[in-house]
Amino acid sequence: MGARRALLGLIPLGLAGLLVGCASAGQHEDTGFHVVSSLPADGADDVVESQTPELRLSSAADSEACTGDSVGLVALTDEGGVGYELDVEVDLLDNGNKLSLAHDEHFASGTRYAFVVRTGSSGCVDVEGRPLRPFAASFDVP
What we know:
By secondary structure, the chain is mainly beta. The protein has strands at residues 4-6, 35-39, 54-57, 71-76, 82-86, 88-93, 98-103, 111-117, 138-141. The chain has a single domain, classed as Immunoglobulin-like, CATH 2.60.40. The protein has no helices and nine strands. The chain is globular, with a radius of gyration of 14 Å.
């Protein structure tokens, strides 16, 4: 599998099925399965090219459902659309309460990236079957 998959068809659809801008950490009540925090944090502008992004979750994720098909990273265009999606390997850490999104290639210098949380039948769920709530955070690599 290559390090990038073009997402050209998603831009006109307003990123349907990809929730990049619906909610960010700290905007949720303490109910349901949600992202508690991200590393890098939303708005970070000093991310190193080799950093492995992480999502801290409110409960343990289901390892079968929380994969690179349900949670990922995209590079954004200057206009804010999706340029391409990175291939990521999702690892569950801290008893499933943290997702690590390892990527094959270093981040590109001068690029903004965003976390992607997919919903529906291919979405990430916790061990109780609750779907991961929408989440958005972006960060910049100088």
